[in-house]
Amino acid sequence: MRRMSLAAGAAFIAVAAIAAGAFAQGPGQPQAQAAMSDAQGKALGTITLTQFPQGLLVHAELDGLKPGWHAVHIHENGTCTPSFAAAGGHFNPHGGQHGIDAAPTHAGDLPNFWVDESGKGGFEAVTVSVTLSEGQASLFKPGGTAFIVHAQQDDYASEPAGNSGDRVACGVVSKS
Ligand SMILES: [Cu+2]
Q1: Domain 2-175 top-level CATH class
Q2: Across residues 152-175, what is the average pLDDT?
Q3: What Å distances lie between residue 176 and 34, 37, 113, CA to CA?
Q4: 36 pairs with which residues across the strands?
Q5: Nearest to 51 by CA among 142, 171, 135
Q6: Of 5, 34, 43, which Cα lies nearest the Cα of 148?
């Protein structure tokens, strides 16, 4: 009896591990990514997007940024050249305002994230304001979209970008 229950426990753990892997990797779920680089073209890591029925999971692993809090947003043009200004303003298909109190907010608004002393920063967020699927809020609309990391944190209020300063990293959203 004891051996049987141990075996059953092991089987449960294996299933749980597979399920966790499926969430991280998202086989069968639509995925996209943005390869982030600085203004000199140096690679700073990747933002991976996985579409779930309940929302879009944003998973970022970045390195080479200045320590401290940084704003990150989805901007309205899928280009980072000739300068990061080409990415335009925040992706805002619903005519919203920037911040947390607004209704609606900019669809491209996201929470700030922390970069440690070594320059590494990562975060996950789930947003229901944008999608990899078709529609008005699609990140694959004509012209595409791009992620921008700013030099400072977002104050979640000031127009048009939360007083978050220069654009220090950019990456076009592309299908994985
Ligand atoms: Cu921005």
Answers
A1: mainly beta
A2: 93
A3: 9, 17, 24
A4: 45
A5: 135
A6: 34
pTM: 0.83
Compute, in angstroms, the gap from residue 114 CA to the centroid of ligand 1: 16
Cα distances from 87 to residues 19, 25, 100, in angstroms, run 36, 28, 22
Q: Which two tokens stand for residue 13?
A: 């753990």
Q: From ligand 1's centre to the CA of 66, what distance in Å?
A: 16
Q: Where are the domains of the chain?
A: 2-175
What is the rounded distance in angstroms from the CA atom of residue 152 to the CA atom of residue 163?
A: 8
Spatial separation of the C-alpha atoms in residues 50 and 57, rounded to whole Å: 5
Q: Give me ligand 1 centre to Cα 172, in Å.
A: 13
Name the one residue in this structure whose structure tokens are 């030099």. 151
**For 29-77, how does the pLDDT look when each residue is reduced to its tens digit (9 = 90+)?**
889 999 999 999 999 999 999 999 999 999 999 999 999 999 999 999 9
CA 111 centroid distance within chain: 10
pLDDT band at 27 (very low <50, low <70, confident <90, very high): low
78 Cα: distance to centroid of ligand 1 (angstroms): 13
Please check whether residue 89 is in contact with residue 160, taking contact to mean a CB–CB distance below 8 angstroms. yes
- Distance from the alpha carbon of residue 134 to the mean position of ligand 1, in angstroms: 23
